[in-house]
Amino acid sequence: MTIEKQSALVLFSGGQDSSTCLAWALSRYQRVETIGFDYGQRHAIELTMRPQLLQKMRGLSTDWDQKLGEDHMIDLSLISQLSSTAMTENIAIQMQENGLPNTFVPGRNLMFMMVAATLAYRRQLGVLVGGMCETDFSGYPDCRDDSLKALQVALNLGMASRLTIETPLMWIDKAESWRLAESLGGEKLIELIRHDTHTCYLGERGQMHDWGHGCGTCPACDLRAKGYHQYRAAKK
Fold first, then answer.
1. Which of 37, 90, 113, 170 gives 20 to 30 Å between its CA and that of 143?
2. Which residues are annotated as a binding site?
3. Which residues belong to the annotated binding site for Zn(2+)?
4. 161, part of any domain
């Protein structure tokens, strides 16, 4: 099996982190494709925003437009059938007895990576790019660097391949993530992320804040807002 090391498959949800990762990949690889997952998520507005967001990403750079290839949307609705979480059901966000918030969807990122690896193998794409982060996160065990490194080993053993998993946001906080986006695509990318990406756990799209759309109260909105304000404050 021949794998193109200068090619990447980006896990692209339509949110801030995955958009930054897509810009990162387009700045490094010659051929980039994207994959998204419909798993019955409560914030499915992301899926609505994805196509126009991808088109606008193309418009930021002729080089990016030439590199950005096919988008793949995968039905993983079985996840919502297996899990009862605040990400897949209309229930209040709260901490659980195991110390994890009920926004944690067990096995979600592991399944995402496994499906992405299967597609990458078929498409001869050498690198999987994901927005997992161990700095600003809610303690999700499948976002940890150790988890992703172990998964890379398992995938390559199981498929006799040499896929690489890249997580460019793993060791940076949200303010640094905004700065990374600026370094990759300038103020135009920042404005695109503000206006066209979606992060809110509750799927609120109506109100526009200085940091973007969202309810303004859920953990995802709070993290995004604080990071944006820190990022802007450091520029003054």
1. 90
2. 12-22, 200, 215, 218, 221
3. 200, 215, 218, 221
4. yes
| Residue 123: partners with Cβ closer than 8 Å, 6 or more residues away | 9, 33
Annotated binding residues for ATP, written as ranges, equal 12-22
What CATH number corresponds to the domain at position 61?
3.40.50.620
Distance CA 103, CA 49 (A): 21
| Consecutive 10-residue averages of pLDDT for the chain (236 residues) | 78 95 97 91 78 96 97 83 53 54 66 94 96 78 90 96 96 96 98 93 84 90 94 89
The pTM score is 0.89
Interior angle at CA 46, CA 44 and CA 51, nearest 5 = 125
204 belongs to a structural domain:
no
119, 125, 135: which is closest to 36 by C-alpha?
119
Kindly state whether residue 234 falls inside one of the protein's structural domains: no
Q: How many structural domains compose the chain?
A: 1
Residue 209's CB: how many other CB atoms inside 10 A?
14
Determine how β-strand 212-213 pairs with β-strand 208-209.
antiparallel
**Structural domain contains residue 51:** yes
